[in-house]
Specification:
Blueprint (H helix, E strand, L loop, with lengths): L2 H10 L7 H8 L6 H16 L7 H10 L7 H13 L4 H12 L4 H14 L7 H14 L3 H9 L9 H5 L7 H14 L2 H6 L11 H23 L4
Length: 234
Amino acid sequence: MSIWSRIADALSALTSGEGLSAVFDRLRTSPDKSVAFTIAVIALGAKMAKADGHVTRDEVTAFREVFHIAPEDEPKAARVFNLARQDVTGFDDYARRIKAMYAQDDAPLCDLMEGLFHIALADGEYHPNENVFLEEVAGIFGFSHQRFTRIRSQFVPDADRDPYDVLGVPTGTDMAAVRKAWRQLVRESHPDQLRARGVPEEAVKLAEARLIAVNKAWEQINAARSNHDDFTPA
């Protein structure tokens, strides 16, 4: 059964007057958090897409790139999108509920933030209002400003990309520690790890941008250190 079929089953239990937030509250304590995770991305994504004043076809397409939707599941996914647009729950309230759902395990929250960045950049522009929205969500999630800028640098073309910052280590860290940090981040980006965190099968693509940035940062540091070690003063 696909994630959309499971969500459709949850939606079918709705009573008159209940919205998407009611479904989310029922599901966030379930052992299968992938359904709640998907609804969280949809809800925040729908609200974030309006942060720049309009929802573009590109932003909708971007969601389809992150969550692969089979043709037979499109009607079910469309219903969830429509409920997300109509839901009166504020984005900050959703963000707090999601934070509470994962307690101290913030790895899924990082996955979610990366999905929102993917949607935000889909139209080729990173609007200031989108930055305000995402920074506020990151703050509710408990992310430091440094962590937020590190995630942003994976997606925003003109954002600073300090390779040490991408790997989460101080500048000048010895190569053994840099290599250890790089390998750990690569492991965390593996599809099996995402599934273990409750990210649905349909959304394992969420880690692609992170993995690209992590590998590039390792290559930059490794190349810079190698060039420095090979340099012999005249």
